Amino acid sequence: AGARAPRRQTPRRRAAAQESGRPRNLNSRSPDELAADLAAMTCLHELSTRLHESSELEPLLEEVLNATVALQKSDFGTLQLYRCVSGQLEIVAQRGFDPEKLKRYRYIDRTAATSCARALRLARRVIIEDVERDRKRAALRGTAAELGFRAQTSTPLFSRGGKLLGMMTTHFRQPHRPSERELRFTDLYARQAAEAIERQHAEEALRTSEGQFRRYFELGLIGMALTSLTKGIIEVNDELCRILGYTREELLQKTWAEMTHPDDLAADVAQFERVMAGQSDGYSLEKRWVRKDGEIIHSVMSARCERRADGSIDYLIGLVLDITELKKAEAELRRSEAYLAQAERLSHTGSWALNLATAELFWSEEHFRIVGLDSAAGAPGYPLALKVIHPDDRLFVVEALERAMREKSEFETQCRVVRPDGAVRFIRSLAQPVFNRAGEVSEYVGTIIDITEARQAEEKIAESEKRFRLLAETLPQHVWSSDRNGSVDYLNQRWLDYTGMTWEEARGNGGHAIVHPDDRPALEALWRQANAEKKSFESEVRLRKKSGEYRRFVLRGAPFLSDLGEMLEWHGTNTDVEDRRRAKEELENAQQELARVTQITAMGEMAAAIAHEINQPLGAIVNNTNYCLGLLGHPEAEKKKRAALRDIVADANRASAIIQRIRGLTNGSRHPITTLNFPDLLEEVINLCQRSLTEHQIKVTTAVAKNLPRLRADRVQIQQVLFNLVTNSIGAMSQTEEGVLSIRVARGKLERNPTILITVTDNGIGFAPEVAEKMFDAFYTTKKHGMGMGLRISRSIAEKYGGYLTARRNEGEGATFSFLLPADESA
Ligand code: ADP
């Protein structure tokens, strides 16, 4: 420190140095010299004492200047401070100059001609012995003349670190050069000045930082406190009051330890003790506080101790940043991240992000799972990541991505990925470009969805759809489907062919036109009900053919419901039953014909009996007539003749009635529908069979319930059934000792509708269980001359009326036939 040694010494200077007498040792000095040294030393001591006592810079600098002027016995002196911002020297103290004259020289920069400017440039002491004689100093002569000096010595003031702080200059009216001794002391004085300046700089710096601290303290961006060595609170700012929920007055009564969360106290105290022990100046930690209201506050805290000059700790400054919200947000984030991860897992959706600048790739946990890789290893970068894609798909994925990048557009692709275990998964990848401020795509952020299962399901659906179409097109029926409002969305080719309509004409409600106008209201009502009840429906309707002809169809519709049971659509078929219906009608006709034939056959069988029956009255008629003839001419026999003739009329009527009945049975024409009267009906049937019943000595019991519901039917057909059942029973009882035929007519129920149930029970030979159904087959007979048509015809008659005919074996002997007929609902 201090003035630098001159780079080279001119011989003249060396001579001057010798002349001034460099002290080799104290003994070689004169008493004057020693006295002067002592004075200078005393002055120096005083200066340094003052330096410690006074905090004011300028008086101190003035004293240093005075001491130097006195030391060098100069006529004037200036002390300048170096202003590092402007690079100028500024006079802050002067001695001996006319202040008015000096004003112009208050600021000196390095370009000036003065010794101080030169010292500033060279950063060392500059001595100008005589301005007049020194040719190089010509520029200074004006100034020197104005201010009245001829010689100058400028000593720079350096900080301990070697930074220039100022300049001390002594001026002499006569040419002059200070001695080495003077210069040595000057350097020591300069040191004091530099010390003072340096200290002031430090103080200023401290003041600024203290000011800053104050500002922060009051600004309240952060909680701040000054705390004592006993953890007490000396001062707090408003923010810390807010954070901890106490008033300032309350806080000043507390220690920070009491407000610290018990779980975090130990860590804080341990650090605090280290500071107290002088092992550190401060520390930072994350800690929790318990607010006045009991709420937990999360904070980041840092503490720093402030030391006194002697190094002892004065107080501590604590900074508290409330991060409770941050913590919550963090927890929230963690939670939402967890949710996201779960959502990803549940939806089989992974996410990814590709940074285009760095080719860095981010994969979410689920993304790793989908591609079958371990997340611990981290995502491979791009394009290495493409390796997970099936080799056959890689090219188009790259193309799609590159195209998206080029067009700065969305990216979407479906491809296969191959897991390390060889399993192939189908994925859909979707991504959005992220733009930076310059409008460039900086990133792609997207998702991948594992669609393997969905795709398999889709394939299955497509497959079954295909199968359905194939089936629908091969079925001999019309196949259709409609939405839940009945608007048709599919019709098979067969339908189109039948109606001659195009799909365009038929779609929606167009196809409904083919339903026969008379059938439409009923069909519509049925469909509406089925739609409301979400049930299948079936109806026979007439549908118009291309030719305009109507054919009968059975139209069946089934609802297609969603898993939640809501109506989605209708699927249905129309089956052409025209031919079947016609065949049935023809069959019925044929059966009727056959029934007539069987009746006639039965009649044939009964011919003898009938003949016998008619013979009897006819014989009686003949006898009576002969008797009457014999009595002719005998007036006294008038009474007898009258009685015989009455017998003849009665017999003739009886014969006529028999014939009438037979004619009624054999009459092949269709019969009128009438309300059936069962007692009469039974009587007639029994009468018809009377001869066989008598022949086999069969007892007949009948029971007809009262209040039977009304039944309108073809009387002859019903009679035919009963006649068949009764003749069969008689046949079965031909070998029975005491045959009993019982016929009951009772009320019955069929699906809650009133019916009439006729049961015919015999105690005949009965039948084997396996025959129960066979009996009703056409041509099944066990009789020598049987036709096997009786039961067949009877059943078809029963069914024609919506009833049934069944046979069952009795518990004991014989069989029971049940013939059920629905009654008129209106009854
Ligand atoms: P057929 O009387 O011409 O044989 P049916 O159809 O009337 O034709 O009867 C078929 C067969 O059913 C009879 O041959 C007989 O074997 C059996 N069968 C009908 N009724 C009875 C009955 N009441 N008891 C026992 N078997 C019966």
Structure in words:
- The longest helix is centred in the last third of the chain and has 54 residues, at 578-631.
- The strands form six sheets. The protein has a six-stranded antiparallel β-sheet, with helices on both faces.
- It has 827 residues and is an alpha+beta fold.
- 45% of the residues lie in helices and 25% in strands.
- It is built from 24 helices and 28 strands.
- Adenosine-5'-diphosphate binds at residues 724, 728-729, 732, 762, 764-767, 775, 780-783, 786-792, 815.
What hetero molecules are in the model? Answer: adenosine-5'-diphosphate
Radius of gyration equals 67 Å
Uncertain regions: pLDDT < 50 for 5+ in a row? 1-27
What does the average pLDDT come to? 83
> What is the approximate shape?
rod-shaped
Largest sheet: number of strands, sense, barrel closure = 6 strands, antiparallel
Look at the helices and sheets and give the structural class: alpha+beta
Q: Report the total helices.
A: 24
**Strand line-up across the major sheet:** 3-2-1-6-5-4
Strand tally: 28
Distance between the termini: 138 Å
Portion of residues in beta strands equals: 15-25%
Helix content: 40-55%
Helices and strands, with pairings:
Blueprint: H1 11-20, H2 31-53, H3 57-72, E1 76-83, E2 88-95, H4 99-102, E3 107-108, H5 115-122, E4 126-128, H6 141-147, E5 151-158, E6 164-172, H7 180-219, E7 223-227, E8 233-236, H8 238-244, H9 248-252, H10 256-259, H11 262-276, E9 282-290, E10 296-307, E11 313-322, H12 324-347, E12 349-355, E13 361-363, H13 365-371, H14 391-407, E14 411-418, E15 424-435, E16 441-450, H15 452-474, E17 478-483, E18 488-491, H16 493-499, H17 503-506, H18 520-533, E19 537-544, E20 550-561, E21 567-576, H19 578-631, H20 638-666, E22 673-675, H21 678-695, E23 699-704, E24 712-714, H22 715-732, E25 740-750, E26 753-761, H23 771-774, H24 790-800, E27 804-809, E28 815-822
